[in-house]
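Fold it.
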Amino acid sequence: MKTKQICIAAWIVFSFGLTAGCGGGGLTNGYLPVPEPDKSIVNADVAKWVDSSTSAAVTSCNAANATPQTIADSINVKVAFNAYPNLTNASGSKNLLIQNVDFSFTPITAGAPAISQPSQPVNLNISVGGSASVPVQVASQSLKSSLLANFSCGDGKMYSYYLSITFNVKDDFNNTAKATTVIKMDFADFVD
């Protein structure tokens, strides 16, 4: 009799654990697969060199009147809201709001400076079963401007990072979730 009670108690605890794991903090009608970036490696040129008096492009940072100009780099990332298989719950969430994107840079190159970038607001709705291509600014002008001081004209230096791109989402019932993808970023003063 005692063994039967222990087995029933274990079954209840196990079943409760499964039920809590299925919806606790998750989305009600679907899930987020790993987002798909259109590029896995981004070569981010920290500066385009222009003539300070005419703004015309120059061929090198050594050219007369050369001044740096920073231009942001962006990629497109496909984000999907897939329905749970075999789910027919009509009262579940039908929409997903992509609120914003967070960035986390992890240096690959020894001696690479620590860098960060603020969250990017998105505010885009996706219906269950749908997807969207989200433009994501992976290297802002201000980020490149702050990195520019780490380069000397013609030094050939490159800093590489893994960039984690995390989409923060919520459904119609304010359940939240995150979906992250990772790309490689190479920062250098590439030849213009």
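The CA atoms of residues 97 and 125 lie 4 Å apart.
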